[in-house]
Every structure is written in C-alpha cells, then in structure tokens.
From TrEMBL:
UniProt domain UvrD-like helicase ATP-binding: residue ranges: 176-518
One Gene Ontology molecular-function label: helicase activity
Highest rank taxon of the organism: Bacteria
Keywords carried by this UniProt record: ATP-binding, Helicase, Hydrolase, Nucleotide-binding
Name of the protein in its database record: DNA helicase
Compositional bias annotation for Low complexity: 618-631
Organism: Streptosporangium pseudovulgare
Pfam families: UvrD_C_2
Amino acid sequence: MPELDEERVHVARCEAALRAMIDGARFNVVVGEHVAGDRYSAERLGRHLKSLAKELQEDAGGPPFFGRLDFGSGADAGEHRGRRYHIGRRHISGEGGGPPLVIDWRAPVSRAFYRAGARDPRGVAVRRRFGWAGGTLTGFEDERLDRGEELGAASRIMAAEIERPRVGPMRDIVATIQPEQDDLVRADLAESICVQGAPGTGKTAVGLHRAAYLLYAHRQRLERGGVLVLGPNRAFLGYISAVLPALGEIDVEQTTVERLLARGPVSGRDGEAAARVKHDARMAEVLHRALYGRVRRPTGPIAVPDGSYRWRIPEEEFRRIVDDTRREAPPYGVGRERVTARVVDAVRRRAEARGRTTGTAWARTVTRAVRPFVDEVWPAVRPEEVVAGLLGDPAALAGAAGGILTAEEQAAILWTRPPRTFRSARWSAADAVLLDEVAGLLERPDGYGHVIVDEAQDLSAMQCRAVARRSEYGSITVLGDLAQGTTPWAARVWPEHLAHLGKPEARVVALTTGFRVPAAVVELANRLLGALEADVPPTRSFRSDGRLRVRQAPDLRSAVVEAVRDALRHEGSVGVIAAAADAGTLVAALRDGGVPAAAVTADADGNADGNTGGNTGGDVEPAGAAPAGAGRNIGGGAAPDVAGPARVTVVPVTMAKGLEYDHVVVAEPAAIAEAEERGLNRLYVALTRAVSRLDVLHSRPLPPQIDVTDFRPLPSRTGVPGSRPLPSQIDVPDPRPLPSRTGVPGSRPLPPQTAGRPR
Ligand SMILES: Nc1ncnc2c1ncn2[C@@H]1O[C@H](COP(=O)(O)OP(=O)(O)OP(=O)(O)O)[C@@H](O)[C@H]1O
C-alpha cells in the first residue's frame, strides 16, 4: 500500500480510538459520580472527567497527529530502538490497551521531534512532517536524519504552516516549534526565564506552550497553586484565549495585571507625573513606612481581668514584645496576631504560676481582653486607609516620604481634594498598585505555581513587585521586548526589572528569528531600532514572502478605505492601526465607504498599555453593519466564517501590542510617533503587526528613520539555516536599486537551497 494510504489508515484508527476515548470518558463521568468516596472527591473527579470528555469532544475534528518519528537501530535510540511514534496534540490510547496510537507532543520522547537534527539525530532515523488541509491528510515530508538529511527551514510543510494567513484567534504552534523555542518551552519548572524577543519571534507562543508543558510534566505540583498568564489588555487576551484550550489546558487563569490587582472599579485618573511617582519602586518604602508608622510604642502596662485575678504585664515587657515582633518583620497582619499571642502567653505564664487552668475558653476570653491594648500599639488597618491616609494628608505623606520623594514628587501624588473618608475615595489604576502593595504588607497573597508575564517590559517596578508577591514560591516566565516598551516606566534593561520581579537570577535568552513579519517589513521596522534606546539585536525574518507598500496620500482617509478594499481581495484578517486620536474617524470613514469595520475599544479597568489616564486595555466592538460573527473578531482574529466586512478591525495603536493581522494598514506614522514620549517605540509595535502585507500610508512626512526615499533593503540577515533570503515584494516610491547580494548591481540573490520550498 502506498505510504500515504497507510498513514490514512492510521488516521482512521486514531479517529476510532478517539471516539472510544470520548465514550469512555462520558461513561466515566456517569460512573465517577457514584464511585468517589466523599463529596469533595466526587466533585473533583466529576469535574475532571467532564472537562476531559468535553475537551476530547471538541478536539475530535482536528488532525490527530502532525509528525512521526522512526527511531533507528543504533544504541543512541535507547529504549526506543526500532520504534515508530506518531506525535500529536494529545495522547491517543491504543486499542485494547495496546501501544498508544499518538504520543502527546509534551511527552519526553516527543522532544526528539523538535530537537533532532542531522548533526545530532538523537537516535531518530526519519522525521516525518504531515501536511493537512481541512482535516484531510494531504501529504508528508521525510527527513532521513540518519543519512545526514535535514530540511530545516526549507521544509515546505513547515513554511506553509508558518506563512499561513491568519484568520481567527491565535493558533498553537505544536507542529512547528523551533529548537530554540523548545528549549524554553521545556525548561525546568524550578527555573525562571526571561525571553527578550524581537516582534513575532514567538514569545507569546512560547509562554503559552510552556504553560501547557509544565501542566503536563508537573500536573500534581501545579494543581494547587495553578498557572497564571498575564497579558497587556483584554483584546490581547481574547486573541490568545484559544491556544491553551486547543492544547487541552482549560484551567489556566489568563488576565491583565490591572484585573489581577483590582479591588474595585477604577474611577480616578492620574496625570502622568503622579502615575510615574506611584509606579516608582521607591513607593514601596514610602508605603512600608506609612504602614509601620502606625505601630506605636506601648505607653503603659496591660491589665487583664480574669475571674478574681487581675494580671498585669508591665509596660517594659509589652514594649519588648512589640519591638521583638517588629524586628522579625512578619507581614503586618501576622505581626498583630503574634503580639496578641505573645501577650496572651505572658498572661498564661502568670496565671499558671498561680495554679490557674488555662484551656481554650480561657485563652479566648483573655485574647478578647488583650485586643484593645494591641489595637493601641499595632492597630488593624485596611490598605485603603493607609493609602488614603498618605495621599490625603500632606503631613503624613511628608512623614513617610521624607528623604525618599522630593517635594515636587510628593506634591504630584497628593490629592488636591481629599475624600471625606477612605471609603469615598476615587481610586486610579496606579492607586490599585499601591493598595496591592499595602495589602501584600498586611498579608501575603496566595501564590501561583508558575506565572507567565507577557509584554513584561511595560510593567512598572510596583507592578513587578505585585507579580513577585504572587510567585514568591514559584517560578516565572518573563516575556518581553525592550524595544516595544511604551509605558513611561518601561524597562530599558532586564536585570533591574527581574530584581523587581523577585527573580534576579532568571536566565535571559534572546529570540531573534521572527515568524510573523515578512523580511521587507522587518527591515523597515529595524531602521527604528537605533532611535529606541533599547540595546536589542535586530530581528531576522524567517519569512521571505510578504509585501511592503509605502504611499504618500494627500487624503489619508480615502487612501485607508482604498487600501482596505484592496486588502479584502486577499484571504486573512485586516487591521488598520492609527494614532488613538485618529481611530474613530477611520472607523467612520470605512463605514461611510461601505466597509464596515470592528473597532478595538478600551478596557473599562484601566491602565493597561501605558496610558496613565487609564482605559487603555481593550475590547472589540463589532462593526455596525457587520454580520454576527464580527463580535468575535477579537484582536487579530477575523471571525472564521466571514467573507468580507467583519474581517476589518481598526486598532488604536495603544491597543495593538501583541496582536497580529494578515494585512496591516498603518495610517500616518508621524501622528503615532508624536503622540507620546515613546512614540517611536509605539510605531515600531505598529509596523511589526503584519503577517503578510503592510501598507504604510502618510499625508505628512514620514519620521526620518523610516523615510522611504532613503529606503534600501539591507542585505539579508536571515541567517536561518536553509532559509531562502528571497526579498519580499517591496513597493515604495522611487526605490533605489536593490543592493546586490551577489555583487552585480540590481541582481537578486539566488537561494542557497532551491529544493523543498517552491513558491
Ligand atoms: N515555531 C513557530 N511555528 C509557527 N508559527 C510560529 C512559530 N513561532 C511563532 N509563530 C507565530 O508567529 C506569530 C508571532 O508569534 P508571537 O505572537 O508569539 O510573537 P511575539 O514574540 O510574542 O511577538 P510580539 O512581541 O510582536 O507580540 C504568531 O502567529 C505565532 O503563532
């Protein structure tokens, strides 16, 4: 039988086995409800089995496997000698307890699929990649690693997967994880890592796959604490929300830092000066002082009535208890309990010396009697009281911030009209960070087993501390790009940031091969790097396809409508990215032009993406005239079933981080660049959202760094083994001749490898 037919037979066996697994899981749901010993276990088991049944059901339509490993007969194959494994998104059990039909991509043996190469075959004789179209197996590609064959980036199947137009939410990348990405995905649970990755290098993908991997490899250890994924805003979270469920992980909490810290609605706003101070690491010390400033030295003895006795703890002893407890520096709330317990103990010693029996009831009564004395010296407080007490009272602020904040800084954060009580305070997004800091001083928050922080460069020192508090006993994966930092407090180097995150020892790894943005677009964006005050290596694109078009247009609005109409002739999502102030008019222009567009709007909960005024996280508002599917058009995802209008989303550039669209129209770069202090970083983000095509439209002069009159594609730095640095299509006014990479002016380079990746 031809090999492809044999594989199709295997597909059919997998489908049958999967159906049997679904039936089995459903049966177990029913049985599980009766077999578990107690209600708690019954509930847990039921929940587990139901979600398993649901996952399997939802998964049933997808390709059951994407790769195959045939191990050779050499000693390096170890226990896998002569064996063959199909690798897929999830394990599929063999019929009747036989060997599994598909091995989970996270299993130890699957590692060779991602890491084996001609130089280090890891015992693998043949690596096979499968091509699928609409659930049908269409072909495969073999690499005879035992004969020194390796396609690398020349694999057609891999290139097609990476270059596939984006429709719908972000997909998993299990079939094409690159070796350097795999290294990060499978890093040990105990290890904290920081991935400095240029745009589109797969940081987010790596983080999500790492979450799935860790849950697979350390499920029991992570079950209690859980895994937390933090992203910049809701549009981003919407875009990535399908990846983990597709990998069978539905219990991962995905949220923004703002939501994680939220104690109530954000109703106040800060000016930039105030927000900068509130987000500064020095505020931690100010708050610490403000809180512990409430602890007072005892000014008298304690007298506790106890039946016919009256016990007395002298002032000196009480003072020693308070001083000792302060020195031990426990969380404030614990300190309060410790002082109380120590005073009760001191009373107990005296009572027992007089022959009193001191049981639980005695301790309860005495504790009640001691409380008022402890309240005097170590009062119970709420975070809101502490922060309001500081921001609403110049003297209190001066007391806590003296020698830490300058007079101007203190003036910047003082409330001009303090609320009557802390209960009526209007808290800003930055205040939420201060409240969380105080809450963390009062009581340690529950920690997570592992925290993944995306777009971490934008976090402030105080936000980092909030994350650190939640991962004190766990590890973290920090994902970010210093060049994409846009908040006023964005990191310029990693070590300091990692220290604020509580993991100064984290390994910093750079990813530089971009999988999203085509080479020509990358080269344009790279030109901004010198102006971004970030010491990061330039991106090298894996992709030689794609198109860049730069156009001057006196009437920008009509040019945008025209460009979008043109974009809609191609498959995939379309994103129009503009300065926040211009987004509304572009939505209107598109709708007037008969091109309904969805619009990314701000989150209600605040300060997600560097706009200190709050309201910068995002959501997607469906296009007015769009069909029902448009509402699902979160971030980069066009609804899968749409044929036109709902594929277009207008994104204020402040919301574009982490998103991607097949075709991007960037409108008026100069307006983006001048809208904020780190406007060029923002422009860098905007220019790197395109998967296949980028139109840059401008009516005003372009920022000099990307002025196309001087635009010449740089020699390819692709450097991806086996890749073909064919220039992407570049369409700019009056481009200078392409520089030669073979020495002949205007000549186009020949790909080093012509086999395997036809276009
Ligand atoms: N190994 C891979 N195989 C296939 N696609 C990949 C791979 N790595 C990344 N991608 C794709 O490239 C795109 C960019 O990835 P991702 O969003 O994770 O990058 P990023 O580094 O977080 O980018 P940014 O900093 O711009 O947000 C995504 O569509 C992702 O699926």
